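Hi P.,

Sorry for the delay on this. The queue was packed all week, but I finally got your sequence through. Input first:
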Amino acid sequence: MISVFMRYLRTKDIDEARIRARMTIHVQDDEAECKDYWKKVTSLNDANFISTVVKSPSFSRKPLRYGTIAIRYNSLQLLRQVKEEISDLAEGISETLPQKPV
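Then the structure:
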């Protein structure tokens, strides 16, 4: 899903230097290995990564091997454009659904 969002974001006229990525990992995870993984998935460089959140040990049966990542791009103009596209998409989908009798 992250790679899909990154591809979508790159279709917009954005400044890649403004993209910020924050990883959340567990204390037992190798931060460098996780960062390398997310760099490949996102095609971002080290300058785009901000501080990593390190959580207490995970005792889950299936912890996420590379943690999670949050992508941020601060632009009110882009936010409005994305919201409009989502609204148009939702409207298009609702028009194709059968109408319930009232």
